[in-house]
Amino acid sequence: MRVYLDTNIFVYLENGSLTISDLEKKIGEKIEKIFFSASHIQETLEIQGETEEQRIERINKRLKIISDITKGNYLNENLKNEVFEYLESPFEVIKTITEVSFGQSVMKGFMNLISEDQKKETRKTLGIDPKRINNYKPEEVVDHLNKKLSESSESLTFLKMIEQGISYHPDGATFGRSNRIAGIFELLDMLGYWKDKANHKSNYARLWDSSHTFYASHCDYFITDDKRTINKAKVVYNIYNIGTKVITSENKNVG
Fold this sequence. Notes:
Blueprint: E1 2-5, H1 7-15, H2 20-27, E2 33-35, H3 38-44, H4 52-70, E3 73-77, E4 83-87, H5 90-99, H6 103-110, H7 116-126, H8 130-133, H9 138-152, H10 158-167, H11 177-190, H12 202-216, E5 221-223, H13 227-239, E6 245-247
Parallel strand pairs: 1-2, 1-5, 5-6
Antiparallel strand pairs: 3-4
Helix pairs in contact: 1-4, 3-12, 9-13, 10-11, 11-12, 12-13
């Protein structure tokens, strides 16, 4: 049984409010492997502290938890859009990531290209009510959005919007599924489906939510307690007929 954990689950394992045994009881089987990806490490770099020393200490604590829980089982996508399984230390992965010092700031800027006002205007134009659309099941939401989009343009569909956006990118021809999933998350959010609360971190955080969803698609289970990620991930898996099961930990300490 191959399992991929969202960062929030690693947090609960770190603070002791959740155990691997709890997760195995939830699944009903013994977990054979738990995986991590570079996205976990990117999110670890966002950890703050009152002092630089405290920040480093907290980062190292998180890296150790990831290492202990996963036993170094690492999923990584190469430049050819191929995903491979390695044995790697989170401490080594973070070294690689931090060598590209401008990487995170560039990604943060990229994810904020569309303003919140522009998103609101798009939903208003299409007549989409975020509160109502959240009532749709993951397998129904794309059909609902297609109907709304067709009222604006007969030839426009949800997936066509993704592919059209990719076609405008200089490297669009080489974009793999991970980029398409990121596009689906962004478009779902823009159209109001389990929309993230808008703040200075939400767009950037959604990038990692989509990345976790992508890597989890190579496992049997994706465990997350983020209801917005849960619902968006289920839409993605329905679109691509991916059999990964999305479940929560049912941690009693989840707010």
